[in-house]
C-alpha cells in the first residue's frame, strides 16, 4: 500500500508530525496527505501518558528561544532556529486552541489544568485520527526500511508486522532512542550515530555516605550548588573534532533518596555530564555547597560565638535555614562536632570544619539509578547529518527524524517533550510538500 508519509513511532514527536503535516497541507490547499503511524506497542503515546508522574509536563514557560535552548546539553545550538519557529509559546497556544487548558507552576513547568496526561493524549488523538484521518497501527513492528534507488520516485519500502509491505514518498523516524532505527539510518545513508549513554539519573552514593545520610531519605533542600571535577570529553555542541572543556556545575533543589541524592540539581548535572560520568563508570566525587546564597558562612559562625545565639547548641540551632535533620547531620557526622557543643565554645578550628562541611562537602558517587519514568538517552543521529529546519536528512532525501532518535536531550522540566513538539512540527511541515521525483543514484551529500 502506498502512503505519502510513513511515521515509525507513535509517541509525541510522531503524532505531532502527522498533525503538522496534515494541517500544513490543508493551509496550502494541497491534497490531504495519506499518513500512517506505525507503533510496535499495544497503545500509542505511552511516554506522554507517564510524563510528569502522569500529569504530563507539556513544556516550560521560558519563552525566549536562546534561554530555552540552553537547557539542552546536546542540541542547544541546533534547536535555536526550530524553537524560534515552534517553541513553548506556540505549544501552549496549540493545545489551548484544542481545548486543553494549561497552567504554569512556580518553577515554570507547564501542565494541563486537569493534572492528567489523558487530556493531552485525547487532544493529540482527536486531531490526528478524527480531524485529519491519520491511520494509526499498533502492534506494527517494523522489520525493515529500505529504498530502491533510481526508480521514478525513489520510494521508501517499509516492512511492518501489520502489513507485508508499505511504500512511501517520505519516512519519519520518531522511535525514541532506538538502536534499530539508528541501524536503518546508518544503512540507508551512512548517517553518523553518536553512541548512546544514559542521561537524567540520580546519584547512588558509596556505602560510607549512604550510612551517613541514612536518616535523610525524603528530605529536600531548596537550593544547593553542585560541582564535579572529572576528565573532559568532546563537547557535542562544538564542531566535530574540537574539544572544549566545560565546568560541570549546577544549582537547584536537591532530594535525598534511600540510595543517594536526586532532585533537579542532580538531574541537570547528570544530563550535562552524561558522557563524562559514563566514561568514569559513574564513580566520582561531587562537591556540595548547601548554602550557596550565604557567602560569609565562616563569619556568621564566628559571630554566633559572641552574639545572641552563644548559649545555644550548635547541633540544634540552625543559622542558615537548612532542614533540621540535615543540619544535625552536617554538624555531627560531617564536621565531627560534639552534639552538646554550644556556640560560645565553638573554636575557630571547629567553625572552619563546619563551614567546610556547609560549603564544600565532598561526597563519593558509586553508581546511578534512573529518574523514574523520565529516563532519557544522550546520543543518536548526529545533528550534522540533519537539516534541523526541516528535520530532513542531509544524506537521504525524504528521510526525516524527530524527537529522541536525534542526538538531542534536555533537562527535566518539559524540555524533552518540547523537543518532540518542535522537531515533530518542523518535520511535519516539511513533509507536507510533495516530493519532486528524482532519479537518485547515491545519497545526497
Structure in a nutshell:
With 445 residues, this protein is an alpha+beta fold.
Q: Could you outline the blueprint of secondary structure elements for this entry?
A:
Blueprint: E1 2-8, H1 12-27, E2 35-38, H2 46-50, E3 59-60, H3 65-69, H4 80-85, H5 88-97, E4 102-104, E5 109-112, H6 117-131, E6 135-137, E7 142-147, E8 156-160, E9 163-173, H7 179-189, E10 193-199, E11 201-205, H8 207-212, E12 220-228, E13 248-256, E14 260-262, H9 264-272, H10 274-279, E15 284-289, H11 297-304, H12 324-334, H13 348-360, E16 361-370, E17 376-381, E18 386-387, E19 392-393, E20 399-401, H14 415-431
Parallel strand pairs: 1-2, 1-9, 2-6, 9-20
Antiparallel strand pairs: 3-5, 4-5, 7-8, 8-9, 10-17, 11-14, 11-16, 12-13, 12-15, 13-14, 15-16, 18-19
Helix pairs in contact: 1-6, 1-14, 11-13
Protein name: Aminoacetone oxidase family FAD-binding enzyme
Domain RsdA/BaiN/AoA(So)-like insert: 197-376
Keywords: FAD, Flavoprotein
Overview of this structure, please?
With 445 residues, this protein is an alpha+beta fold. It has two domains: 2-197 and 376-431, FAD/NAD(P)-binding domain, CATH 3.50.50.60; 201-370, no CATH class. The chain contains 14 helices and 20 strands. It has helices at 12-27, 46-50, 65-69, 80-85, 88-97, 117-131, 179-189, 207-212, 264-272, 274-279, 297-304, 324-334, 348-360, 415-431; strands at 2-8, 35-38, 59-60, 102-104, 109-112, 135-137, 142-147, 156-160, 163-173, 193-199, 201-205, 220-228, 248-256, 260-262, 284-289, 361-370, 376-381, 386-387, 392-393, 399-401. Helix 1 (12-27) runs parallel beside helix 14 (415-431). Mean pLDDT is 93; it is low at 233-245 and 438-445. Pfam families: HI0933_like (PF03486), HI0933_like_1st (PF22780).
Amino acid at each position: 500500500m502506498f502512503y505519502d508519509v510513513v511515521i515509525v513511532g507513535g509517541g509525541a514527536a510522531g503524532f505531532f508530525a502527522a498533525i503538522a503535516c496534515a494541517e500544513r497541507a490543508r493551509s496550502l490547499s494541497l491534497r490531504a496527505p495519506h499518513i500512517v503511524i506505525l507503533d510496535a506497542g499495544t497503545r500509542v503515546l505511552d511516554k506522554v501518558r507517564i510524563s510528569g508522574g502522569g500529569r504530563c509536563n507539556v513544556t516550560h514557560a521560558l519563552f525566549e528561544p536562546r534561554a530555552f535552548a540552553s537547557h539542552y546539553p546536546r542540541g542547544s545550538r541546533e534547536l535555536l532556529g526550530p524553537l524560534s519557529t515552534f517553541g513553548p509559546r506556540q505549544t501552549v497556544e496549540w493545545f489551548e486552541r484544542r481545548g486543553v487548558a494549561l497552567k504554569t507552576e512556580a518553577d515554570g513547568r507547564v501542565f494541563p489544568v486537569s493534572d492528567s496526561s489523558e487530556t493531552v493524549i485525547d487532544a493529540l488523538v482527536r486531531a490526528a485520527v478524527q480531524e485529519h484521518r491519520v491511520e494509526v497501527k499498533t502492534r506494527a513492528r517494523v522489520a525493515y526500511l529500505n529504498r530502491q534507488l533510481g526508480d521514478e520516485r525513489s520510494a521508501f519500502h517499509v516492512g511492518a508486522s501489520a502489513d507485508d509491505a508499505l511504500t512511501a514518498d517520505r519516512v519519519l523516524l520518531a522511535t525514541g532512542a532506538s538502536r534499530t532505527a539508528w541501524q536503518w539510518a546508518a544503512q540507508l545513508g551512512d548517517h553518523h550515530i553518536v553512541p548512546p549513554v544514559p542521561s537524567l539519573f540520580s546519584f547512588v552514593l558509596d556505602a560510607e555516605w549512604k550510612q551517613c545520610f541514612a536518616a535523610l531519605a525524603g528530605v529536600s533542600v531548596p537550593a544547593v550548588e553542585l560541582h564535579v571535577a572529572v576528565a573532559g570529553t568532546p563537547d557535542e555542541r562544538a564542531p566535530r573534532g574540537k574539544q572544549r572543556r566545560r565546568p560541570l556545575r549546577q544549582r537547584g533543589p536537591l532530594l535525598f533518596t534511600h540510595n543517594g541524592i536526586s532532585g533537579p540539581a542532580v538531574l541537570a548535572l547528570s544530563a550535562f555530564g552524561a558522557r563524562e560520568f559514563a566514561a568514569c563508570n559513574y564513580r566520582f566525587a561531587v562537591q556540595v555547597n548547601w548554602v550557596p546564597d550565604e557567602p560569609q558562612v565562616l563569619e556568621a559562625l564566628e559571630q554566633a560565638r559572641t552574639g545572641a545565639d552563644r548559649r545555644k547548641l550548635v547541633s540544634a540551632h540552625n543559622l542558615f535555614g537548612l532542614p533540621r535533620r540535615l543540619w544535625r547531620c552536617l554538624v555531627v557526622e560531617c564536621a565531627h562536632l560534639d552534639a552538646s557543643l554550644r556556640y560560645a565554645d565553638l573554636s575557630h578550628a571547629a567553625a572552619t570544619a563546619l563551614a567546610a562541611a556547609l560549603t564544600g562537602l565532598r561526597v563519593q558517587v558509586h553508581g546511578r539509578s534512573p529518574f523514574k519514568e523520565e529516563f532519557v538517552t544522550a546520543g543518536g543521529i548526529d545533528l550534522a547529518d540533519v537539516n534541523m529546519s526541516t528535520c530532513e536528512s542531509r544524506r537521504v532525501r525524504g528521510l526525516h527524524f524527530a524527537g529522541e532518535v536525534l542526538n538531542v536531550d534536555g533537562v527535566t522540566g518539559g524540555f524533552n517533550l518540547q523537543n518532540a513538539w518542535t522537531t515533530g512540527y518542523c518535520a511535519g511541515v516539511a513533509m507536507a510538500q510533495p516530493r519532486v521525483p528524482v532519479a537518485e543514484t547515491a545519497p545526497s551529500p
